[in-house]
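Worked example

This section walks through a single chain of length 67. The input is the sequence exactly as stored; nothing has been trimmed or padded.
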Amino acid sequence: MKFNLNEQFTPAERALLLLNKHPLNYVKDIVNGMVYNSRKENETEICNYWNEVALEIKKIINIKEIR
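Given that input, the structure is written out below as tokens.
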């Protein structure tokens, strides 16, 4: 059964949840793995979602570095 990942959490919400729950290196590995697997399976929507999550993580990290 396929479902829309945005129905669960937006990419920004998903990024915050992952970063609050797990170390950064682990989160990077998970997100990169999700992008890789979705590309491999030609799941464009899922790949785009996880790419958006990765962008949100980068934004959050940059904000923390500025402070």
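What to look for: The helical segments are 5-8, 11-21, 24-40, 44-66.
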